[in-house]
Structure formats: C-alpha cells, structure tokens
Amino acid sequence: QIRKNSFMNIKLSKVKKSKISDVDFSNLGFCKYYTDHMFICDYEDKSWKNFRIVPFEDLKLSPACTTLHYGQTIFEGLKAYKNDNDDILIFRSDKNAKRFNISAHRMCMPSIPEEIFTDSINQLLNVEKDWVPSGKDNSLYIRPLMFAVDPYIGIKPADKYIFMIICGLAGGYYSEPVNVKIEKKYTRAISGGVGYAKTAANYAAALYPAVEAQKEGYHQLIWTDGKEHNYVEESGTMNLFFVINNTLITPPLGDTVLDGVTRDSIISVCSELDIKVEVRKISINEIIDSLDKGLMTEAFGAGTAATVAPIKTIGYNSKNYNLPKIDKSDYSQKILDYLNKIKFGKIEDKFGWVTKL
Ligand SMILES: *Cc1c(COP(=O)(O)O)cnc(C)c1O
Predict the structure, then answer these.
(1) Beta strands 276-279 and 37-44: pairing type?
(2) Cβ atoms within 10 A of the Cβ of 221, count?
(3) 62-83 tens-digit pLDDT
(4) 3-state secondary structure (DSSP) of residue 87
C-alpha cells in the first residue's frame, strides 16, 4: 500500500476491520467521522524518525507532557477532493507545509522538511483512498499537528516532539449567513505575539470572548487590533473580506493575522474574475459608515472549512447593521464557485494549486 516512490521508510499497520461501513455519507457533518488510520512520527536526537501509519487510536502521554501544561503545539488544516473520475486532488499542501514551519519557528519547535509534510499526507491518503468522499462539496479534511512530548515540569523548549496527521470527513458546508460582533474589549492577537502562528494559545484565549458574544446572539466575533481596537483583523478562525463600492477589501497580514491559504487563493483568483481587490487596513469607522450609507454590499469570512462564510449582520456598540441577502451575482458566490471548480478539477488549474494523488 505504501507507494514505492516515497523517500520515507513508512511502516504500515492496518486496522483489522474498517469503520467505513458505519459512515452515513448523506450526512457527513464536519469531522464527525475520522478515517481508519493516522500518520505519526517522532522527533528525537534532532531528527524525524519512526514514520508509521497505524490505526486511528488514543495516544499514550506522560501526565507531565509539556504540551498539556505549556501549550507547545501547532496544527494545520487542508482538504482533499474526489473528482468525477475518482481521482483524489489535494489543494495547496505546499502552502500549508510552509505555514506549519512558520508556526513551528515561532513556538521554538523543530521544522519539518516540506517533503516529509506533503509526502506523509500523500502516503496516508493513499491508504485512506476510499474515505475521500465523492459528491459536490464533500471533502476529506486533513489535520496535521505537532506537539512536545517531554515529560518535564518547567519552561523550556522540549527535545522530543510528535508530528502526526489525522483525517476527518467533511460534508457540504452550507451554513446560514452569520451574525458577528465587532469586539472592542478583548484581544485575539497583539503585535509581537503569536497571532500569525496556528498554535493552541490563540484558540484557547478566544473561547471566552466568543462565548460572551454568543450569549448576546452572535455566532462569531470580528477581532480588532489589540492596540487601539480600531482596525478589523479576522473573524473567528477566518480571514475577513468586505465589498465596499464594488471593491473587495481585506486587511493586510502582519504578525497579528493568520496567513490564510483561502485568503491568498481568493486574492489570486480575483484577477481571473475581474474583481478589484485592495489589501489595506479597514477601520471600524469605515465599516459603520459604509454600512450606514449602503455602500457595503457584502462581508464574509474565508477559511478552509467553509471556503467563504457570508455575514448577515454586523453588531457594533449594541446596534446591528444588516447586509443584503446573498445573491448569485455576489463576489463571494463567484469566488466560491471558481475555487470549487479548481478544487474539483473542473477548470484549468492556472495557478498550479492542485496535486493529483
Ligand atoms: C486557519 C485559520 C484561518 C484560515 O486559514 P486557511 O488556510 O484559509 O484555512 C484564518 N484565521 C485563523 C486564526 C486560522 O486559524
């Protein structure tokens, strides 16, 4: 099962019986089902070793494992799709590999060669081929992660790490347009911090403010900069886009915003779709002013899970501002449609984003 062309020496232990017959493929949800196997390897004595694909199962860790106490852990998220010929297409895993190493660097963790990152995904998918669901909008969600395993109480970078990959099934992700609240009090990321890394701390710190907003009837927050709470940065775990005066606007990167693969892909495809894009700071004033004047026609989040998630209502200072209903001619819908066609191999992959397994 392990392809001969892998430069890694991967040991494969297969499950005795697949769980795939338990899956209700008409109702996949998001990571309700994990696949049969996982990829795992160890970082010891300054090198990656013991590459193996084993049954998806619980891990055994020391209760003193530094990750559990100090959070030296990072992750990634990407998807694979099945086209009409049953080919498996992986979207931009090279970009996730680069971002993983950027996160690793910030968290004082070892980097992983990009070839190991992408090839371990390919090898795992090769074993899990049957799990990649066919059907419009269905996909396999791939979750690589790395964490420290030293049994050690005390603060220092660990010596030993695990890198692993698990996969979950993802169904058509139509979500109702969401209500979001512009957050003025709590901070997701500050300059000099870890906002640009896909590391646990960012998500743990965001839980409380998000739960508070949910009590007020919002689904998500729009995070503002940590210094003045004046410029918008991200929404939940998605990058943000606004359409004002027929121009698509998104905040710039920097060390407080996650460099989303979806964000980057959207900016790139706009040239193909004749959509004018501006990457620049957007203040709360500009947002409220353009909502008041009816100049803002769309707002949406962008991320791997949903690709684009339209926003229905923006709340600010106890006032709610509504956006127009989604229309087929919206930029968000044209972009979603174009990206889906690339991901499912229905149009030419001009950007070289798709790898066929
Ligand atoms: C993962 C993530 C995104 C979206 O990145 P994609 O690569 O497009 O999935 C945006 N913001 C945050 C905070 C994230 O964790």
Answers:
(1) unpaired
(2) 22
(3) 999 999 999 999 999 999 999 9
(4) coil
Backbone phi and psi for residue 50, each to the nearest 5 degrees, phi listed first: 55, 50
Ligand 1 in reach of 77 Cβ (< 6 A): yes
Residues 6+ apart with CB under 8 A from 68: 61
The model scores a pTM over 0.85: yes
Residue 251: CB within 6 Å of ligand 1? no
Instruction: Kindly give the number of the ligand 1 atom that is closest to the alpha carbon of 263.
Output: 8
Q: Is 304 in the pocket of ligand 1 (CB under 6 A)?
A: yes
| Cα separations in angstroms, 331 against 66, 210, 265, 269, 319 | 45, 28, 14, 11, 26
Q: CA 29, CA 304: separation in Å to the nearest integer?
A: 15
The per-residue pLDDT for range 268-292, each reduced to its tens digit, is: 999 999 999 999 999 999 999 999 9
**Best residue among 180, 198, 223 to mutate for probing ligand 1, ranked by most atoms within 8 Å of CB:** 198
Ligand 1 pocket residue status of 260, Cβ below 6 Å: yes
CA nearest to 162, candidates 290, 92, 19, 65: 65
CA dihedral in degrees (207, 209, 214, 218; nearest 10)?
Answer: -120
Q: Could you please report the per-residue DSSP string of 113-140?
A: -HHHHHHHHHHHHHHSGGGS--STT-EE
Of all helices (H) and strands (E), which one includes residue 50? strand 47-55
For ligand 1, say whether the CB of 250 is within 6 Å of any of its atoms: no
